[in-house]
Amino acid sequence: MSDRPALEQFLAGAESFLESRYPRVASEERSRFTWGEGSDEVRVFQEPDPTEEAEALPRIRAWRAALWDAGLAWISGPKEYGGAGLPRSYEAAFSHLTRKFDVPGDAALTVSLGMIAPTILRHADERQKLEYLPALYRGDLIACQLFSEPGAGSDLAAIRTKATPQGDRWLITGQKVWTSGAHLADVGEIICQTEPGPRHHNLTAFLVDMHAPGVTVRPLRQMTGGATFNEVFLDGVEVPDRARLGAVGEGWRVALTTLSFERSAMGHSSFGGAGILSTERLMQLVRHSGVAGDPLVRRAFGELVTELRVARYAQEVMADRARAGQPPGPEIALNKLALSANIAALGEFVAGVLGPKLIADTGEWGTYAWTSVVLGAPGYRLGGGSDEVLKNMIAERVLGLPRPS
Q: Cα dist. 223→54, 149, 220, 239 in Å?
């Protein structure tokens, strides 16, 4: 006989937990968007103020610790590593439930829980799983992904960071770039060259202590004004062999796993509510700009909204597969490509509606704020694999087309 609680029973307990700690958010506050009220900020990439980010981190850690103690931090995770061992549908239902409460946002843990932890679960040895997984889901550790380099972004196999064996440890030297959250991270999943050999077979993955001597993190200022990403320098950083993730020479396989989870996370991004892909926000922008009667604007708006809804339905299919326990496959690249195209189309549409107001800050609500979207949209075509790389993946792995000779 199964000791699994019914979904209704599980949600009742979860709701009681949330209600005892956090205030409810009125349903109209969650769904309503009112032009001219609140912040008009819209961004492709989250770019929090550094001071506010530092102040929020203890609240996020406390939130994760409370979830862990209540058995809600990793609802679908294996029990032997601290999870609740429940179906993914329970996890999705709890996620939906949290939207009714004013809980701390945990965007700072997206890489930790959406990319690194699933990779560890799939590739780590038993000792590593017991060491890292509870700490990541409890919020004790924050992780980052150390893949891209100045000369190896889309062509990840061309990385030059080296890990040299020294007895029972490795010395890592090199540079990584475009690392989200490195300034907050305690541990980083890094891919290094470890031996001469053919591409894809000379790489090894490690879990490196981001506070170790020889690790330097420097923020990268973007043209949007934010500093979401970092470059990381590693100068003879000592990493014990027990921190190796997978076998020597298997780093490419580990990296592909992480990238698949990254593309899944990016492809499922909706920027919903009053976010940049909200059709209600776009509709009010058109109305308040006085162009709602323009037939060209109406046609462009209809085409954009249609694409947004098609992409949303595709996301729901992928989400259903994830809830059924199916790992993300190469078709997840389609979602990411669609999102990149929609964000680019959104930027073009908004630029056409606002005209000069997009580049000259007049102080008018809901106008100049869109500049960060127009500036940030091109970067979305690169993150998680460029559009060109993803199209090749679809051609080869989904359509079965041959590689060019």
A: 22, 20, 10, 35
pLDDT of residue 270: 44
Whether residue 6 has pLDDT greater than 60:
yes
State yes or no: is 131 an active-site residue: no
Closest Cα to residue 136, out of 161, 108, 95?
108
Question: How many Cα atoms occupy the beta-carbon half-sphere of 352 within 13 Å?
Answer: 17
187 DSSP β-pair partners: 143, 209
Question: What is the helix (H) or strand (E) element at residue 177, kind and residue range?
Answer: strand 169-180
Which of 80, 262, 303, 396 is catalytic? The answer is 262
CA angle 263, 264, 267 (to 5 degrees): 80
Burial of 362 per CB tally in 10 Å (0-12, 13-18, 19+): exposed
CA distances from 316 to 113, 152, 220, 289 (A): 20, 33, 34, 33
DSSP code of residue 49: -
User: pLDDT tens digits for 217-252?
Assistant: 999 988 777 778 899 999 999 999 999 999 999 999
Judged against a pLDDT cut of 60, whether residue 267 lies above it is answered with no
- Read off the pTM: 0.85
Query: Using an 8 Å Cβ cutoff, are 175 and 152 in contact?
Result: no
326 is written with which tokens? Answer: 């199916």
Domains identified in the chain and CATH numbers: 41-138 (1.10.540), 143-251 (2.40.110.10), 270-399 (1.20.140.10)
Report the distance separating Cα 40 and Cα 183, nearest Å: 27
Say what the alpha-carbon torsion angle 30, 36, 41, 43 is, to the nearest 10 degrees.
80
Pair 189, 203: CB distance under 8 Å: no
